[in-house]
Amino acid sequence: MSSIKTLLETMRMLRDRDNGCPWDIEQTLESLSPCVIEEAYEVSDAIARNDYENLKEELGDVLLQVIFQAEIADELKLFNFDEIVDTLNKKLIRRHPHVFDEASKPLSAKEQTRIWDQIKAQEKSNKDASWTFADIPASMPPLLKAKKIQKKAAKKGFDWKESIDVIEKVEEELKELKYEIQQNNKQNTQEELGDLLFSIVNLSRHLEIDASEAINQANHKFIKRFRLMEEEIAKEKKKLENLSAEELEKFWVNIKSHG
User: Fold this and answer.
1) In whole numbers, what is the pLDDT of the chain averaged over residues?
2) Which residues neighbour 203 within 8 Å (Cβ) at sequence distance 6 or greater?
3) What is the CATH number that goes with domain 3-89?
């Protein structure tokens, strides 16, 4: 028996109503949805840390989510694992005519991306998803979703020409946010803050910097500096929570000066 067949059989045993695992049995497509997202983030984290042993494990956890969902779908008579694989294989062949169609000529990466998008758009139109943002998942992480929205709008010609134009837009949104804060209007402040964040994601796209990676880098930097600050405070036999804002700022500035 192949490895994948063994894995599928293991999942069937876990879901067996008489002899399976109670937790696995009670799971649904909906209850597992957050797990799919969580496992994908853990894969990304392992890659960022160059931890390939952990990456192997985390990719296995992603595969678990696939076979778990497939088994539940099979039980519900929706589709099965083989249909998932068959659908994927057909999609890969269909979207790579330059590889699988002998009559096609070699393409550059840029040309292939254009053809990929054309084929994908045709597939979506066949599903009656003709409007620009129809295929963007509602549950997509906000920063990624904003970037995807902006890229799709740009393909329609709705985009800033230069990065400096986006910077001016960011400054405009920041000014509007400051005004609403001064007006003490919570609802408008939230709206303007959203506009500012959307514009910053747009700026990162124009600069060819991934906004999610940039904020992750900032998160890691803050955590590292905060940990070092805690260590410095402990060396002086003090407790962080007992220090004034001015004292904390002095420790923080000192840590920042060392990188």
Assistant:
1) 92
2) 163, 166, 167, 169, 170
3) 1.10.287.1080
